[in-house]
Write a structure and sequence with these properties.
The chain is mainly α. Keywords: DNA-binding, Transcription, Transcription regulation. GO terms for molecular function: DNA-binding transcription factor activity; transcription cis-regulatory region binding. It comes from Arachnia propionica.
Length: about 190
């Protein structure tokens, strides 16, 4: 269970993000500034930057990121399998994002998929994140650095592809189905060769 400080941070991030999305819907993403988001959310601009880094981060970052990736990294560093660590870490996030917060997640994904600047920011964020995940995989002792880089790149890009497919299909089926189908297809590729 998250402590008081963590819960306050999560609530603040959620409030800022919901405020930003109302502005994006009203005015369009390109026509909204961080200053406008901060003013509408009644927070300082520095709070927006501290929690989200950039305006684009308002779309793809959220209050779950640190907890989810912290759990995944801890699992990997302790020697858990890559898929086991992802399953444990992502399970709660998928429940929160794609079931409880389905509508905002769908709106976020749609905006992310349609805006080049957001896609570029996601790419940079995932590049930084993948370095941490690679280190954790190597620390876990199952793979060397080259193998870990390949595995992490394949899984992160696969998760992005599954999320985009989920969004393009109107979120008509659970995200887990898209991820499972992608992993099954990848397994078939390796069996065929």
């Amino acid at each position: 269970m998250a402590g008081l400080r963590q819960r306050k941070k999560q609530a603040a991030m959620r409030h800022i993000q919901h405020t930003a999305f109302a502005l994006f819907e009203e005015k369009g993403f390109d026509n909204v500034t961080v200053e406008q988001v901060a003013e509408a959310a009644d927070v300082s601009q520095s709070s927006v930057y501290r929690y989200f880094g950039t305006k684009e981060g308002l779309v793809f970052r959220d209050e779950y990121d640190d907890a989810v990736f912290g759990m995944i990294l801890a699992e990997l560093e302790s020697g858990a399998t890559v898929l086991g660590a992802l399953d444990k870490g992502m399970g709660g996030m998928i429940e929160e994002h794609f079931h409880h917060d389905r509508d905002i997640t769908l709106a976020r994904t749609k905006l992310w998929a349609s805006h080049e600047g957001i896609r570029a920011a996601v790419g940079l964020y995932l590049t930084k994140l993948s370095e941490r995940v690679v280190e954790a995989v190597v620390t876990g002792g199952r793979y060397d650095e080259m193998e870990a880089r390949f595995i992490v790149a394949a899984l992160l890009n696969g998760m992005l592809s599954a999320t985009l497919s989920w969004q393009k299909a109107g979120a008509s089926r659970p995200l887990e189905e898209y991820m499972d189908r992608g992993l099954s297809a990848l397994a078939r590729v390796f069996r065929e060769d």
